[in-house]
Design goal:
Radius of gyration: 18 Å
Strand order of the largest sheet: 4-3-5-6
Strand content: 5-15%
CATH superfamily of the largest domain: dinb family like domain
CATH topology of the largest domain: Four Helix Bundle (Hemerythrin (Met), subunit A)
Distance between the termini: 22 Å
Helix content: 40-55%
Largest sheet: 4 strands, mixed
Number of strands: 6
Structural class: alpha+beta
CATH architecture of the largest domain: Up-down Bundle
Length: 246
């Protein structure tokens, strides 16, 4: 499972971190490495609850503890604030045990089964991909904070496909309309081409390195700082709105 491989990459970064490493500031405004890992552990627990049919109970429990959140970001911040202060060793155990539970839950569910998530219902397979995407994003956050360079892998094909498939949701969430179908033509880390093509002729095509598209979708790079380019009426809007998370 690609999620397991991404978790392993993050684990290699976290093993052996000293207190200074855990407290290193990240590109997630106001969060250090410990906060990022805590957030990932919490959202992994949320995903496990989703897969096992306990999502409503999970959200009710957290809602009772924290009160009503004004947005997804506000809810995430409140959850981290609530549990902040764990030691590095405790955080590592918190995340690794939860990550293992999530993998086990995903292995025992029908990939096509519909489960509840923040943005509504989705398939268990899609939920697994969103967890891959978020784990990849935060692996990059940790690597950046501790001065480690990571080589992009072909796991990004799943992240890029998620970004492509959820463009209608991204436009809808922003109150915008798409002029027509969108295609991605991306250069993979290995040098091959990944084509994501709609059933109907594309009105807009985005081209460039897959890793840059994924970084833009993760809100970790501004489109203007990349070599991505688009043709068609929605080119600028796609690069503005594309995302991999709710």
């Amino acid at each position: 499972m690609e999620l397991a491989a991404q978790q392993s990459e993050l684990l290699e970064l976290l093993r052996g971190l000293d207190d200074r490493g855990w407290r290193a500031p990240t590109r997630c405004g106001g969060w250090d490495v410990a906060d990022v890992v805590l957030h990932l552990a919490q959202t992994d627990d949320m995903a496990t609850a989703s897969v096992t049919g306990a999502f409503a109970d999970f959200m009710t429990e957290w809602g009772s503890a924290l009160g009503a959140a004004t947005s997804v970001d506000d809810g995430a911040a409140r959850m981290v604030d609530h549990e902040r202060g764990l030691s590095g060793a405790a955080l590592l155990d918190r995340w690794t045990s939860g990550a293992s539970r999530l993998l086990d839950a995903l292995r025992h569910v029908d990939p096509s089964a519909r489960v509840r998530w923040v943005a509504g219902e989705l398939s268990a397979r899609t939920l697994a991909t969103t967890r891959l995407a978020e784990t990849w994003i935060h692996t990059g956050d940790v690597a950046d904070a501790v001065g480690r360079a990571l080589e992009p892998t072909n796991r990004l094909e799943h992240v890029a496909r998620l970004a492509w498939r959820t463009l209608p949701y991204a436009f809808s969430s922003a109150g915008r309309s798409m002029s027509g179908p969108v295609a991605f033509r991306l250069l993979s880390p290995g040098g091959s081409i990944w084509d994501f093509v709609p059933d109907e002729p594309a009105a807009t095509t985005i081209s460039g390195p897959a890793v840059e598209l994924c970084e833009v979708a993760a809100r970790r790079a501004d489109p203007s700082s990349t070599s991505l380019h688009g043709e068609g009426p929605d080119a600028d809007a796609v690069l503005e709105l594309v995302r991999t998370y709710a």
